[in-house]
Design brief:
The structure is a single chain. The protein has one domain (about 10-110): Beta Barrel (Thrombin, subunit H), CATH 2.40.10. About 0% of the residues lie in helices and about 70% in strands. The protein has strands at about 10-20, 25-50, 55-65, 75-80, 80-85, 90-95, 100-110.
Length: about 110
Amino acid sequence: MLLPFWQTTITRIRPGTKFERGSAVPDWENVSRLDINECLVQPVSTSLTQDGRIQGTTDGLMACAPLDADIKAGDRVEYLGDVYTINGDVMKWVGVGRLEHVQFNLVRWRG
């Protein structure tokens, strides 16, 4: 266990693989789901888009999970009923004892 306030459970959503024109591509109609316990999720940003045609918002979260969590770039995460995309790589915090964990950024666009 990391810290007592790391009590959130998130669900990792990983696509299967299919082949199109000789290349392996993500298959979001064939996914695997995995609950990851002992996480911390915090809001970090939100923005509004108004370009005359589309009005929407982008929400960003920062999430931390145990160091051995099965999560990677390209996965999606369900949190509080909403699905977010991992934005960038999953980064490891090592060498900090009890605080070792992975950190990743999540983003969701609504419009």
